[in-house]
Amino acid sequence: MNDLGDLDRRLSASGGRILGPVHLLRETTSTNDEAKDGAKRGAPHGSIWIAESQTAGRGRQGRTWTSPRGENLLFSVLLRVTARPERVPLAALVAGLAVHDAIAETVARDRVKVKWPNDVWIDGRKVSGILVESTLQRTGPSVVVIGIGVNVHTRSFPEEIESSATSLALESSTPPDRGELLIDIVKNIDRDVEHVLARGLGVVHARLSEADGLRGMRVSAGEGTAAVVGVAEGIDVDGKLQLRGDDGILRRVSSGEVHLSGVRRMAE
Ligand code: BTN
Fold first, then answer.
1. 211: which of 86, 114, 138, 244 fits an S-S bond (Cβ 3.0–4.6 Å)?
2. What is the mean pLDDT of residues 144-167?
3. For residue 258, which phi and psi values (nearest 5 degrees)?
């Protein structure tokens, strides 16, 4: 637990606008639930909930997120932001880039990629997943909860994801402590999020494109008969994935899951 100590002080020394308070929990259902409850009780912008263990950790698309107690980083940040509703999903891209940049301090940058919209890969294996949940307001700031899981110390994974998941301990001889990693991620979110939500991806777009792990890959988007298979042609300035279908048509994918074509991996 000591690598998560003293985070309020360490955050305020980082000089950003995400300053806690930090709620460190031994166990909870999901840190996203804690953050959403906190929001209803009036918790301020920048509040953070971290757990050593979650009993009902959630992923995107109704998946679960499991993590052995005390090994990994599991946290949620509450943001109160004024933004046009169509811009709020950009917070997920900002979070993915924030995690990417923090991990690239530890693992060679060219090995670390964002898998649109917001998973992070090292050499094509998932090291981090992000779940953003928001409550939009017509007037006044919206509540955006960014929940982040990073595999830090886990060295063995359940059979169904062992070929598609990884951790910092497996990929780096000097994995960061979890507190240091959290502070780096939060600083990176803080660097970009208000600007992006107010004005769009703008300058962040170039950095995101450089980190894009899907560009040039064969992927499929959508399910069943509605699935489109083709080649990913990058993320556009609105944060959408451009997918050139095998029929030659360029589509802009705004939500849902994208799978590497022919490879459906459980950790995606
Ligand atoms: C995904 O890959 O589908 C997203 C996984 C998000 C997991 C994190 S762990 C902290 C926070 N609390 C949750 O219940 N989920 C997110």
1. 114
2. 95
3. -120, 130
